[in-house]
Structures are given as C-alpha cells and as structure tokens.
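The data layer described in this paper is built around a simple, fixed record for each protein. Because each token names a local backbone shape, the row as a whole describes the fold. We quote a single record here, exactly as it is kept in our systems:

***
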Amino acid sequence: MAQIDIAAEIRSLNRALKADGHRVAVQARGSRLYLVATLPPKPNSTKRKPHQQRIALHLGASRMGLRRAKSMAILVSDQLDRDRFDWGEWTALNADDEPAKTAGEWIEALRLHVWDDLPDDKEFNWQKTLALFRPQQTAPSIAPLTSEALITVALAIPEEKSAMRDRTCRQLQRLADFAGVQVDLSPYRTGYNPSAVAPRTIPSDAGIEARSHPLITSSGVPFRPDGHLRTEEP
C-alpha cells in the first residue's frame, strides 16, 4: 500500500476548509493532529482578547485522523460563528495537553516530516540545508523547545556574520512554525543582502597570459605557456 503524504493531505484539507468559510485549520505537530484558530482566552489565562491557540485532538496524523479532524474543525468553526465556543467542552481534550517535546524531539519530527520531499542524497541535503536544526546547535536537545531558546540560538550568531545569522533565523523560524512555537525571529535578522557583496574581479584571458608564464603550482611543478605540463629537464 502506498504511503500517503500527510503534509499534502493537510494542505488540501485546509484549502477546502478555508474555501468553505471555516476559520479553523488543521495542524500536525509531529505525529499528532491539532486544530488552530483564533479562540477566546482560556478561563485561567491572563490574556483578555481572542488570540491564536491550538486544540489538541489526540488523533494520529493519518487519513482516518484527518477525517475526524475535519469534522471537529467544522464544529469549532460553527461554534465561533454563533459565538457559542466554550473551552469547557474541550477541556477534557486539553487537560494538560501533551507533554512538551524537547528540541531534539522536534528536530527529529521535522526531519521525518520533510524527508520525502528532500532531493536525492537526502542525508546530504538535510545536513546541508537544515544543518542548524541539529540538536546540539538548537539549544540543549533535552530541553523543551521554547521561543526563548530559539531567540538565544539566533543571538548566539554575531551580527557581523550576517549571512549566517539570517540563515539561522530562517531555519529556526521554520522549526518554530512546525512545532507551533509562537515566536517571530525576523527582528533578529541583520538584513543580509547577497547582492551587496562586492563581486570579485576576474582578469581576462589575455591578462592572465601576460602575467603567468610559466605558471607554478603550489607543488613547484612548472607548466609550459601552452598549458601542458613541462616534463623535460631544464
């Protein structure tokens, strides 16, 4: 049986929900499904205005789980539309939510999530493109993944290393979005602009020829002006 692409299924489901006017989306965090919407504050919250929150569904990220998640998303959307949403109805699902995953666990979950979409030589491309997701570089791997931890990692890159700082912020933001950690790392970017890097001046062929007869390699082997290795004794 072919393995389904859960990420693609979720994108398709969310497009359908949005097209039907529902204000709720489905999100996968690791192997579990959640609803995401702008919801009233929880009864014990210090916040007073509606803000984006998650509802843990305790459903696996599977085709069957998505069918149930769709029904629950429509139900929440209907409650919001009629101003009838009540956290009390969802408390059982969200008593303590799930234990917070560590940074290392979220990094591994993201690796599994994007693995099928990586180009060939997947391990190389994961290490190359998402190298900063390695646990030892993204806060202690046994610590929870928090906004404070992500900001700390971003600020650990000196501002003068603007390209690395910007790349780090982009990658950490992707990890935060995947894990559902609410943080905006854009203020910590340095505005690196690759086009601002001064281009290297490459001399013309004539200029190279005028200055380089004979060329000597680092090993001291001379080359003839025609470019062939000089093998005869001087």
About this structure: The longest strand covers residues 51-60. Residues 103-194 form one domain. DSSP finds seven helices and three strands in the chain.
